[in-house]
Amino acid sequence: MGRGDHLTVRNGRYHAVCHYKQNGVWKTKQIATGIPADGRHKKEAKAKADELISKFMRSISNDHTSDTLAEYAEYWLEQKKHDVRSNTLRNYQDIIRTHIIPRLGAFPLIDITQREIEDYIRAEQDDCDRIEKENERLREEAEQHGIKYKPLRNSYRRSIKKHVSLLSSILEFAANRDEIPSNPVRKINPSVRKSINVTKFHGTALSSSEINRLLELFHGDHLEPVVVLGLHLGGRRSEVLGLKWKNIDFEERKIYIKDTVVLVGAELEYRTNETKSDTSMDVLPMTDYLYDYLKELKNKQEQDAILFGREYQHSDYVCRWASGQLIRPNNVSQHFRHMLLKSDLPPIRFHDLRHTTGTLIWEMTGDIVAVQTYLRHANVSTTADIYTHRSLDKKREVAKVFEGALNGSVHEKTTKHEKGTGIENQG
After folding, report:
1. Rounded to whole angstroms, how far apart are CA atoms 57 and 168?
2. Phi-psi region for residue 221, left (φ > 0), alpha (ψ -120 to 50) or beta?
3. What's the predicted TM-score (pTM) here?
4. N vs C: which end of the chain shows fewer Cβ within 10 Å?
5. How do residues 198-217 score in pLDDT, each as one tens digit?
6. Phi-psi region of 60 (alpha: psi -120 to 50; beta: other; left: phi over 0)
7. Residue 356 and residue 350: Cα distance in Å, rounded?
């Protein structure tokens, strides 16, 4: 520990003061205890100061062997800041603070074993059981009263594997730095591991008639351009909202997917020349329908600018409110769901428009590479995993072609055999 460690008071609260030497230079660090300096809590403040100073000294000496999992997870997040995108980091933070820390955060890092991991998994599964049971009760009540069913809380059963994978990444990081002997996630019982390998979620694709009804539903709505582009481009929400007029080439009839808009916490991030992966950044052809639609939309936005005058918010983004304000990602998801609940359409997610596009291409062509190219997946295996299970009719067609080819081959061999042996058909 540093020298001359003591308490000081700032803004009516005790702060720990630590003097420490780093790279040959003495420095001073003040750390808030959160305890009011009213003369009655000094003993408590001293104990808290000792804890905070000890933690701080471990952090600067890179000694985390005595950290709790909660402390180490925060340290791990700090290390990941420069490795992942901000929205990915935010997802990590949400999982760690919502699922991992409440159940495992108080455990010393060194004390987490296979047993604690398996208990954590079972607790998550039990929680999902309770949620699903309550949602089923609400669904039955809604059916009895003839009203729309809305779950009180969504089950996260399909996400448990993701939570465990993130926990494993944290513990693997610690093991690689010799702060724990090994990663206990690697040792969990195979039956427990199997229980979190639930069937992969593939989303829902609309039929052609449902697509037409969807477009009618959103006609004139502020999300109409988002829905039209989502379907025609097979675009992710971030890509559709990030589309700019400068990336639409009417002369060459091309649309360049280059920019994205994402929500990180409550703040929007505008990313130029940055998509989910390198293959996501691509150029797509503009159909005749999309050419006419976008021309009309651009003209409408020019009229909106005149109508709103000084209040109009000018930008180059395609998907905007009539006032010019950019449509936020959370509004897309929420309003899309709200509109569908008022209709007789399946309660799909906005991302399912992308699945709809992929499914239609697959059913029309049977070419998985064509689907991968249009949706701009990084790996064809990702595309195959999502789409090759979808069309039983397509599989039947392929089976019939194969059967015909096989029967033809057998018939040809039989005919040759008959001719060779002098056998002739009688009658």
Report:
1. 26
2. beta
3. 0.59
4. C
5. 655 567 889 999 999 999 99
6. alpha
7. 10
